[in-house]
Specification:
2 copies of one chain form a homodimer. By secondary structure, chain A is an all-alpha fold. Chain A is 68% helix and 2% strand. Chain A has 10 helices and 2 strands; from the N terminus they run αααββααααααα. The structure holds a DNA duplex (30 and 30 nucleotides).
DNA sequence: ATGATAATTTTTGTCAGACAAAATGGAGGA
DNA sequence: TCCTCCATTTTGTCTGACAAAAATTATCAT
């Protein structure tokens, strides 16, 4: 029986908070492995000797923490590892409330993407390369359709990040990227820069394949740098806050 | 009266989720500015035409999102912007559950820190530089005390990141740094590398002061690179997962 | 009047019990 | 075996209640 160890009633540690902590602990310690299913609210309530409403509040906490989720259509809670989706959500609010601009996100991308390319050049598996090659082929086929290019571009960068095998790196990238790419895409669409994008992607891919970290890095740098130039050319405000859609200058 | 616009009862959007969304919206739109205080649960309940328990669940969601917080000792909820503390919390669970290693975090730092140094070289204000100079002076005085060095090192990097004026960059750095520095510090303590650290900090500071982005960057690169070398010298496992404390090799 | 203290009113945390709608798990039929 | 229908949980919400903690207000000594 794993009741709450602290029956005290401090304000800082209300029952629902303690329960959430306890469950988080069990997840982090591998006691409740990712993928496992939580008991129903009722059994949790009796296990912790609290009422259902209290467990519910604890569950809301863990849910927003990204530790548990209710599967689509399903009715039971499963333990999950928070992904870029959950982290991104929180970052998004943080960034918006701090009036973060596209330029600022771009600086982050300028730091992270080239590193992803470098690491991927060393670590990418044959399978990773296959996936990227496939993405390239589809990009080639869609080079005239801005909407598809956009999607494929996002996928490309995700794949490169994934190929690093570094979850910290790819998580960091994905979260910022999710906020950044809408703007990137707008630029690309406006400029119809599909072929330039494709060239960069192809060069990066070749470098990865050749395990040439330096080339992978410099092509990625160039590719990300295109965004800034693109903003100029497309007459978009590089320094607009991300709260709204990127604005036209003047 | 801003009742919920959707009285429907889909599973995907339960009342408490809608209310949380609505409130989040109001915060992001500046309707509920950061710092303002929320009405009590009862008024919220009547405003949204739901019961108190439902509002409570919505509040738990927003609380964990980092958007509202109850001030120390106070009893009312205030709107806040999520900071690195809240984001870091979530990243921490994500990283731990993905068996992220110190090496992986180090790769992220290797990408971000030099960028911070570069940007700071351009953007640091006189005040920023003063703060860093002060930090340097204190570091100099504490060069023999590993514990203090550790604290001052964290502060130094925070200050450089803050000096970029880029909240996205500093938030990204701070969150990862919070997880990374404990290990960094362990290494530094073991090696008693205070003077080497001080030299790097000083060189970085000089570069910032001289607005020399290239130097700032390369010194920061070297400084971060020291961690890897330090792990070797201190015989610590660079590839240990961050879930526990960094382990000794063998 | 003023600052400190006591009394009163809100608000919060928690509980119990209730109910409709949705999901789950079987039993039985095609 | 696969699918449909029904009994059984489980979930989302609501109402009402109560003690403890905060916030207010009233009260009193200076």
């Amino acid at each position: 029986m794993d009741q709450l160890s602290t029956p005290t009633r401090d304000r800082s540690s209300s029952a629902f908070r303690l329960i959430a902590q306890e469950l988080e602990q069990q997840v982090l310690s591998g006691d409740l492995p990712v993928g496992s299913i939580l008991p129903g609210e009722l059994s949790l309530a009796s296990r912790f000797n609290v009422s259902r409403s209290t467990v519910r509040e604890a569950i809301r906490l863990l849910e927003q923490l990204g530790l548990i989720r209710r599967e689509e259509g399903r009715n039971k809670l499963t333990v999950t590892a928070p992904g870029h989706k959950e982290i991104g959500e929180r970052m998004r609010t943080a960034f918006i409330l701090r009036d973060t601009t596209f330029e600022q996100l771009w600086e982050v991308m300028t730091a992270i993407e080239p590193m992803c390319a470098m690491v991927a050049a060393h670590k990418a598996s044959a399978h990773d390369l296959d996936l990227i090659a496939d993405n390239l082929a589809r990009t080639e086929a869609a080079v005239k359709s801005p909407a598809k290019i956009v999607e494929l571009d996002i996928e490309f960068h995700n794949l490169v990040a994934a190929a690093t095998g570094n979850s910290a790196l790819s998580l960091s990238r994905d979260t910022v990227g999710e906020l950044f790419y809408p703007a990137f895409n707008l630029v690309m669409t406006r400029l119809n820069a599909g072929s330039r994008l494709l060239l960069a992607h192809r060069k990066i891919f070749e470098a990865l394949q050749a395990r040439n970290a330096a080339d992978a890095r410099s092509w990625m740098e160039r590719h990300i740098g295109d965004f800034q130039r693109g903003c100029d050319l497309a007459n978009l405000d590089f320094r607009a806050p991300i709260s709204g859609p990127i604005m036209e200058l003047e």
